[in-house]
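Checklist before submission:
- one chain only
- standard amino acids only
- sequence pasted in full

Submission:
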Amino acid sequence: MLESEILQSLLPLIMLNGIVILCLIVFAFLYPHRNRNPEILERMHKSFIGIFLREFWYWFTSPLISLFQILHLSPNMVTGISLILASFAGYYYYLGNFAIAGWMLIISATLDILDGRLARITDQVSQEGAFLDSCIDRYCDGIIFLGLALYFRGNLLVLTATIATLIGSEIVSYARAKGESVGINKHQGLMQRAERIVLLSVISVFHPFLMIILSKYGIRTNYPIIIIIILMAFLTNYTAIVRIVTIFKSIKNLKCNEG
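Returned file contents:
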């Protein structure tokens, strides 16, 4: 299985990483002279994904917006494609083919970003589109962690951590939505959806190579991805608790001020 994973992930790793690194170098030279993207600044929150990396990914994926327009893809169609790819990612996680699952997750998450941008650029922003996108995101998260849970079903610790991450991620999203429904918009927390996707997808893509390194020391367990899952379980639920407490206090203060 390990040799098969390496063969499947090596070529896209070399090609895509080479393209990304080259584009990152070009963007680093352009970045000081660019105006900050107001959309990114509006959505920014404290996390390990800084504004530079967010700006780079928006810039790097911009040609896809033009491609979608040429193909006459609607934002909802892009959202649907992201769900299909997330389903494939969940399936490959279930099979234990983490490299392919990681690539599928990266593409799915990228499309999830682009559907909203496509809607704004083509003046197709709608409440029903935003609602559909939010619901599809929850399905994508569920499918991904279901695949991981099924793969690690024989390991109680990792299975519990996977389920805990899924529960925490749902609470993070629900708390934000509930807060916004009463006029409170909070983005607190280090482990929101973007951070979870980055951590899981990157470690998945490089998993076969990390296993090669570990196998030289006689370690043949999926320690890299196990560590990431446990880390996500802790930080996701910490984020959920921070958000719950913050929004709770904000609602309480709002009622006091109204009174």
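Reviewer check: The chain has a mean pLDDT of 83.
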